Amino acid sequence: MNIEESKIKSPFTVPEGYFGKLEENILAEVNIQTLKSIQNLKTPTGYFDQLEDEILSLAKIDNLRKNKSIATPKEYFEDLESQIISQVNIEKLKDSAKSEVPKAYFDEMEDMIFSKVKIEKLKDLKENKTPEGFFDELENQILAKVKIESLTKGVQLSTPSSYFDRLEENILSQTVETKKAKFTVVKNKWVYFRNAAAILLIGTFSVLVYKQNQPKDEFAEITSEEMIAYLAEENLTDADLSTLVTETTPIHENVELTEQEIEKYLKENDI
Amino acid sequence: MKDEEIIQLLENPENHEKAFRGILKAYKEKLYYHVRKIVIDHDDADDVTQESFIKIWRNLDKFRGDSKLYTWLYRIATNEALTFLQKKKKDQGISIDDNEGLVSHLESSKSDTYLDGEEIEIKLQKALLQLTDKQRVVFNLKYFEELKYEEIAEITETSVGGLKATYHFAVKKIEEFLTKN
Q1: Which of A105, A120, A205, B150 is an S-S bond match for A101, by CB 3.0 to 4.6 Å?
Q2: Which residue(s) pair with B115 in the sheet?
């Protein structure tokens, strides 16, 4: 459809005699506006000159009123003068009473006091002044210390024969020489079981990813640390973990870890 | 009274009233219909037209004669109408480009005595309401008033190039609407 060729008209109409009324309304409104503006703007001739005069005369009247209101008692100013003079004399006397000190007196005063204190100390030393009964107490203290020393020297902490040899053997047997046993769940070590389960899960994921042989698999890019972090954040319950472990039981055979190794790993990774 | 006579009267402030009466006589219908096509409702158009003429009266001394009288008058009326619509939409809490209210008003005014046109004329108005208010102004001035782009550019205070693009876009959109409906 080509509207430019069709030349469609506007459908709008107005009530009969509308434009006559519109004109009347507008003119009436214009007249009101004109009257308003005339009322607002017109001032009588010489209005502003008169206004200035009126303001100035009002200011004068106001000044006169103010002068009247601050009237003083009789002979006030005579008394004021004598009061001021006597106050000045008092201030002069105060100034003269102030003791003068030599220049830099207060700077030197500090040094003088310190040197005096030192002299007093030296005097005390010369006179060997000690508190009453000082030397008696000192003797007692020295004797007590000597006794303690002698007692300490006399005490010998003994150990059973070859104790240290056996201790060494015990430690080695529990650490370095311990055979690597297959991981087993100990009933009363549920915490170890839970932590171990987390590690087993990591192993499970890794094996699965490897078996799938998908080079661009997103799981393949997840590091063990990230997986641990994931498991830590997931807040899995013991029941969840035990269920997961049950589901991945065959993987246990691939893992050979001692309890010490698991503990060490968990400590290192702050799990 | 012709535009030239009015402009001559406007040169002297004492003749402003006479000039204004001349403007009112010559342009009341033109400006009313121009405003009506923007605001659609007769009562709204009535208010806006009166406001426009009051504004014209107040600003007669600002007319310098460097633009044509009718473009100056249309500019004032256009701005008044667009400002009115913006305020109305804001008061109703609807978007500036949303003319759904005007469309429904057009629908409900079919039996109105102030809307007397053939089906296609009303359809064209509905199609126009698919445009933005400013696009409608451009289309109305070009299509109904048959003004030149230069004159429309003076009224809308935009570039001629931009107006041409706006008008052609408006025509295309209206034709699509009329074909579909």
Answers
A1: A105
A2: A12
Whole-complex ipTM: 0.79
Q: Which CATH number among 1.10.1840.10, 1.10.10.10, 1.20.120.140, 1.10.1740.10 corresponds to the domain B3-180?
A: 1.10.1740.10
Q: Tally the domains of chain A.
A: 1
Lowest mean pLDDT among A128-142, A168-182, B24-38: A168-182
For B120, the closest chain A residue by CA position comes to A8
Q: Domain boundaries in chain B?
A: 3-180
Residues B33, A12: C-beta atoms closer than 8 Å:
yes
A13 touches chain B (CB under 8 A): yes
Query: Over the stretch B62-112, which tens digit does the pLDDT of each residue have?
Result: 998 878 999 999 999 999 999 999 999 999 888 877 888 888 877 776 655
Least confident among A212-216, B100-104, B145-149: A212-216
Is residue B38 exposed (0-12), middle (13-18) or buried (19+ Cβ within 10 Å)? Answer: buried
**Residue A72 covered by a domain:** no
B51: nearest Cα among B87, B94, B84, B18 = B84
Confidence of residue A156 (pLDDT cuts 50, 70, 90): very low
Tell me, yes or no, if B52 comes closer than 8 A to chain A by beta carbon.
Answer: no
In a domain, residue A181? The reply is no
Chain B partners within 8 Å of A30 (Cβ): 20, 53-54, 57
DSSP state for residue A25 in the 8-state scheme: H
Disruptive mutation site among B1, B30, B120 for chain A (greatest number of A CBs within 10 Å): B120
Give Cβ neighbours of residue A103 (< 8 Å, ≥ 6 apart).
none
Is residue A56 one of the residues assigned to a domain?
Answer: no
B169 touches chain A (CB under 8 A): no
Domain that holds residue A237: 190-268
